[in-house]
Specification:
The structure is a homodimer of 258-residue chains. Chain A has 258 residues and is α/β, with parallel strands linked by helices. Chain A is built from eight helices and 14 strands. In chain A, the strands form four sheets. Chain A has an eight-stranded mixed beta sheet with strand order 5-8-2-1-11-13-14-12, sandwiched between helices. The A-B interface holds A 47, 50-52, 70, 73-79, 81-83, 85-87, 89-90, 94-99, 101-104, 131, 134-135, 138, 140, 147, 149, 151-155 and B 47, 50-52, 70, 73-79, 81-83, 85-87, 89-90, 94-99, 101-104, 131, 134-135, 138, 140, 147, 149, 151-155. Chains A, B: Residues 3-240 form the Aspartate/glutamate/uridylate kinase domain.
Chain lengths: 258, 258
């Protein structure tokens, strides 16, 4: 099987011009088939504010009203996505931007209402691996914004960490998949205040221990849950680290192990 | 050679929900390979206003400042493009949104400054027919927003009528191309006040006569110049008409003839 590298970058990197440039430079150099999944960052919140659209958060998750959906479609699907594409094109990387709706690559359904109605938030149902394979074999590098659709004409806001994980899982039937999560830190830290305390190998058992002891908390949990899910379901390698550690053929950071 | 239908729709149609639904319904039914090129419409101007970005026009053309470029990338490349894609997907049409930057399909350069600096406005240099052919042969229906890039990391605002024309010209080396311009009127009118006065066949000679006599003016001129350019350079059929006249296998309106 051929190799495929899926890189997920968060908003913190997209918001910082120097970090973004480092990402573009290093991502463009990765060998073989690759996909970039990006989050949104502060631009969506800032644009919403300028447009007078209120940002509502519950437990760190954004509720997506109809007005907020318009903002994230504009910002994630338009501004952020096309900026990244144009910058990668300038580095001879044949990037093309997609949302889950484009070529129906990621089908979702509205998140069911239990205690909270998240609004236009979608949970992934299906990844269209055949279309992605066709694009990759044409030499296209998909740059995927965190939006999905339901094939009934509706768009949804969808978590980028989850999208990267489900893409890795689905595509592991066709490729040897490496999933690299890029964020602001050099890896998962044993001491949040010390960037030199990177946990080099994180097993599911160690992950449980660190959760119980409070070493790993909050923001890292969904990323790690998504990473472990991909690893259990077929991804060959899942690593969490910082942009500048992205190399043509390797990535340094915290490696997840089962 | 296989057939390819390129449909261009303007902002007036995109802004009107009933017109947009008619477009989606009829476009989805067109047989064979097809591409949709869309303009922007009032949403860009409205969004710019809400964001406090001033719209500057010279001779009916929008000047594109850095702030305005951000708005059109958000609105054309994000909101309008993805809405159309999601709606087409709901009609079993495998639409995927692109700007000229995506997969480098349309390369442009900044419009040279003569008397006016249009800002981030790009003139098309090259169409990447091979990538488009690859997408079409995969069954993908490109939905193209009026934005281009220069392969140096810059995005440009580009006239959608021109983009449709240059796509038709370039792709006529690979396909039998039909170019259909959809707008609010049933065709080019001999009497602007009378929708029943459609000019069924418009030759270059008749076009000159109508221009001189003032029957055809202003807004129609760039569309017709673009249409004639495509016809002279290889398109098999160029027709200008209204959305509801779009059929699975034909389009009614004003047919251009050389």
């Amino acid at each position: 099987m051929e190799k495929l590298t899926i890189v997920k970058v968060g908003g913190g990197i997209l918001d910082e011009p120097t970090q973004l440039d480092a990402l573009i430079l290093h991502f463009a150099q990765i060998n073989g088939h690759k996909i970039l999944v990006h989050g949104g960052g502060k631009v969506a919140t800032q644009t919403a504010k300028r447009l007078g659209v209120e940002t509502q958060m519950v437990d760190g998750r954004r509720l997506t009203s109809t007005e907020m959906l318009e903002v994230v479609v504009m910002v994630y699907g338009g501004l952020v996505n096309k900026r990244v594409v144009a910058k990668l094109q300038a580095k001879q990387c044949n990037a093309a931007g997609f949302t889950g709706a484009d070529a129906n690559i990621i089908l979702a359904e509205k998140r069911p209402i239990k205690t909270i109605d998240y609004g236009w938030v979608g949970d992934v149902k299906e990844v269209n691996t055949e279309v992605l394979k066709g694009l990759l074999s044409q030499g296209i590098v998909p740059v995927i914004a965190p939006l999905t659709h339901d094939k009934q004409g509706n768009l949804y806001n969808t978590n980028a960490d989850t999208m990267a994980s489900v893409l890795a899982t689905a595509l592991s039937s066709l490729y040897q998949v490496r999933l690299w999560y890029c964020f602001e830190k050099p890896g998962v830290l044993a001491n949040a205040q010390d960037d030199n305390s990177v946990i080099e190998h994180l097993s599911t058992q160690l992950y449980q221990t660190y959760q119980q002891s409070g070493v790993i908390t909050d923001g890292m949990l969904p990323k790690l849950d998504n990473g472990f899910a991909a690893l259990r379901q077929g991804a060959q390698e899942v690593i969490i680290g910082t942009t500048t550690a992205l190399g043509a053929d390797a990535f340094a950071g915290t490696r997840l192990v089962l």
